[in-house]
């Protein structure tokens, strides 16, 4: 009994000691009081209150001593510090606003009737409430607009909002702006574009901007979605992408966009011309990377390339010569669609499938060499290759006949023959 009492007493003492210990900063003691010290002072700006961060040695912190925001420093109605646009800017009275999201925010729907504004400024606030968006087709085909400034806080530009604004030469966008499909399509007078921090864009956002020559991508440019690959389609004067070397995912070399370690070529500017040699480090060419590069005449691919994505050389109609390396094992759908300058192509032995529309509309293609490894030729693979004369197949006639050929794989082709290693087969009759 005494032994049990002794053990109980020692346990009680131990628990009490632990309680005292835990009553120190960061523990469970009910009498604990945090001892905060100044950790950081955040100065106020015109878009954010100032405050002081206090931190306790246990790791807990609190914000206190708030300081009011500073006045905006407006220059031509645009704050030089945060980019906010004043509600009193000329032309704002000509805009149509609509309350959105339960009556807490405004969006811009367009101009009032008979308005003519050349220097368009979208304000950050209207009637004391934030302006957060520009509606679908709000300023479509407004050819009077020459300059666009979108105020800080506006975070979305909807589909086709400025499509067809052919006289816009200056475009100033705020941070964290989302630009939807076709938003600036056919804005044919824009010559350069600087994308702000936190911005993103979508399918065809700047398509058809035929005077656009350079695009500066934001330092924090993040994951690319498939819709990106047509964001600058039809920008036939575009010769350079650039991005900060501090970006964690992407890089540029000679105006061409790559992933960070340069193993994937992502986008080639549509206005570059002549001959291009893909760097030796590249093992994959991303979807639509060269699509619409109508001024390229020759592309030299590296020896360790393994993948050619979908629509990679789509509409490279002046491309007259390309050698696909033996290392390539995958060629995506529509890879050479409308490459009307190609006359001869050899597919390497590592490829087993000719995908859908791969050579569709290659109307000058006369000879295609296929390896014996081919097991499938998909729909419309050689559609409208009307000058096709020879399929040089590196296998036997029996192997050719065993290939799974999908419907219309050779529709509207020339009167070709298949040269197998042991037999010549004429084009099948309908």
Descriptive notes:
By secondary structure, the protein is mainly beta. Helix content is 6%, strand content 29%. The chain has helices at 2-22, 397-402; strands spanning 36-42, 50-56, 61-67, 74-75, 78-79, 95-100, 105-111, 119-122, 125-126, 129-134, 147-150, 156-157, 170-172, 178-179, 192-194, 200-201, 214-216, 240-242, 250-253, 256-259, 264-267, 274-277, 284-285, 296-300, 307-308, 321-323, 330-331, 344-346, 353-354, 367-370, 376-377, 390-393, 404-405, 417-419, 424-426. The protein is built from 2 helices and 35 strands. The strands form 9 sheets. Strands 6, 7, 9, 10, 12, 14 and 16 form a 7-stranded mixed beta sheet that branches. It is elongated.
Q: Looking at the structure, what is the overall shape?
A: elongated
- Strand percentage, roughly? 25-35%
Mean pLDDT comes to: 90
| Euclidean distance between termini CA atoms | 105 Å
Indicate the radius of gyration in whole angstroms: 32 Å
* Share of helix, binned: under 10%
Largest sheet: 7 strands, mixed
Unreliable stretches:
1-24
The DSSP helix count reads 2
- How many strand units? 35
Structural class: mainly beta
SSE diagram, text form:
Elements: H1 2-22, E1 36-42, E2 50-56, E3 61-67, E4 74-75, E5 78-79, E6 95-100, E7 105-111, E8 119-122, E9 125-126, E10 129-134, E11 147-150, E12 156-157, E13 170-172, E14 178-179, E15 192-194, E16 200-201, E17 214-216, E18 240-242, E19 250-253, E20 256-259, E21 264-267, E22 274-277, E23 284-285, E24 296-300, E25 307-308, E26 321-323, E27 330-331, E28 344-346, E29 353-354, E30 367-370, E31 376-377, E32 390-393, H2 397-402, E33 404-405, E34 417-419, E35 424-426
Parallel strand pairs: 7-10, 8-11, 10-12, 11-13, 12-14, 14-16, 15-17, 17-18, 21-23, 22-24, 23-25, 24-26, 25-27, 28-30, 29-31, 30-32, 31-33, 32-34
Antiparallel strand pairs: 1-2, 2-3, 4-5, 6-7, 9-10, 19-20, 20-21, 34-35
